[in-house]
C-alpha cells in the first residue's frame, strides 16, 4: 500500500504516525495492498479555500476527503490486470485540529489520527449525512481508532521493555555485541 504525505501546514506534525493511522485503517478495512493514498496537511487559508470551493461552506474545516477511483475491494491482488487504485486524497488542517484537540482534552496527534481514520472512511464510501449512516461511520471510526491506539500503546510498551532489558543485560555484562563488533 502506497501512502504519501506532504506537510504544507507550517505546523510540526508526526507524519509517520499519521501514515500509520491511515495504513492501519485501510488494512482493517481490507483494502488491497495495491491501493494508493495521498495525505496533505494544509494551512487554514488553503483549507478555507477548498471548503468553500468544494463544499460551498464558509471558513476552514478539519478534514476533507477527495475520492479518486471507484475501488473494488473484493478484487484479488493477483487477479489479471491488477493495477494500483488511487483511493484519493485526504486533506488535514492541523491548525484547525489543534483547537479541536484542546477542546476534546487530547493531543494534536490524537486528533489528527481521528481525522485520518475519518478521511479514510469517507474515501471508502462511508458518510454521515443521515442518522443511520452517522451511527455506522462513527461506530466504525471509534472501533478502528481504539484498536489503533491500543496497537500503538502495545508497541511502545514492548519497546520500553526492550530498552529496560538491554540496560539490565548491559549492567550484568550480558549485552549482545552490536553489529560489526566482535564478541
Task: Walk me through the structure.
With 183 residues, the chain is α/β, with parallel strands linked by helices. The chain is built from five helices and four strands. It has a four-stranded mixed sheet with strand order 1-2-4-3, with helices on both faces. Strand 1 (2-7), helix 1 and strand 2 form a beta-alpha-beta unit. The chain starts with a strand and ends in a 12-residue tail after the last helix. Mean pLDDT is 88; it is low at 73-78.
Please compute the radius of gyration using only Cα atoms: 20 Å
What structural class do you assign from the helix and strand content? alpha/beta
The count of strands amounts to 4
Average pLDDT rating: 88
- Unreliable stretches (pLDDT < 50, length at least 5) are 73-78
